[in-house]
Amino acid sequence: MTTVRTTRTVAAASMGLGCLLAMGVGSAGATSTIASLAPSTYSAQTGILAGKTIGIDPGHNGANGSHPSIISRKVWDGREYKACNTTGTSTNAGYSESRFNYKVAQYLATYLRSQGARVVMTRATNTGVGPCINRRAAIINAAHANVAISIHADGAPSRGRGFAILEPVASGTNNKVIKGSIRWGSVLRRSLLTNTEMPTSTYDGVNGIKFRRDLGALNLTKVPTVLLETGNMRNSRDARLLTSRTFQKRLALAIDRAIIKYLKG
């Protein structure tokens, strides 16, 4: 997430669940645990999230870097004024974080909708600018989401790898959802460890969890929210996973499973 991007609202995923699951999930090389995330598992849960609203914030945006005057504008993040958004990071080969974030968000939205959920996304393409960090929080708050996730990847020194779940610290605005956000982060952590190959971060937080008071997505939220740094795009092992369509789908399924557990478990 080393830098940040912005777009506009409520996104959709165009591919059917069966098609997405057919492309790589449970394929050769998957562990038996990961292989359990099979189409039958999800078809059996059709409607399980009916009546629930899920907020998805794919970090950054594809055209942020071409509009520095827009994304550098100062906005309130719940504690201080900072840049509207940033460009995000990339792998050493140039695969952008904004693209990764958006791909995973699309897969996740498709799975959730197949289970009856209403999905609200903070941007609908990967070709736009913004929205600003305060606008992203406002979109999800206005939707009265039952739970939300901001999807990112990191751009740290290459020796570090693994995921970190960033959780909110009371800011005034978010005070009522701190407890729920902490529980959501714990459920998500377990699902990522069970259902993906990504380990907990070797450099950020403790056992995959870190509290942050400097992120607008967390400071301004009024719904249970975490920010997921899925892996380090500058680490070669993480980069191979993050740029893999198979891993992106497994990640989305792991998040989906965690959402069901959080809301229904």
Defining traits:
265 residues, alpha/beta, Aminopeptidase, two-stranded antiparallel sheet, 8 strands, disordered N terminus
List the topology elements.
Layout: H1 17-22, H2 32-35, H3 39-43, E1 53-58, H4 68-71, E2 74-76, E3 81-83, H5 97-114, E4 118-121, H6 133-142, E5 147-154, E6 164-168, H7 178-195, E7 209-212, H8 216-219, E8 225-232, H9 236-242, H10 245-264
Parallel strand pairs: 1-4, 1-5, 5-8, 6-7
Antiparallel strand pairs: 2-3, 6-8
Helix pairs in contact: 5-10, 7-10
Please describe what this structure looks like.
The chain has 265 residues and is an alpha/beta fold. The protein has a single domain, classed as Aminopeptidase (3-Layer(aba) Sandwich). Helix content is 36%, strand content 15%. The protein contains ten helices and eight strands. The protein has helices at 17-22, 32-35, 39-43, 68-71, 97-114, 133-142, 178-195, 216-219, 236-242, 245-264; strands at 53-58, 74-76, 81-83, 118-121, 147-154, 164-168, 209-212, 225-232. The strands form two sheets. Strands 4-1-5-8-6-7 form a six-stranded mixed beta sheet, sandwiched between helices. Strands 2-3 form a two-stranded antiparallel ribbon. Strand 2 and strand 3 (81-83) form a beta hairpin. Helix 5 (97-114) crosses helix 10 (245-264) and helix 7 crosses helix 10. It is globular and about 40 Å long.
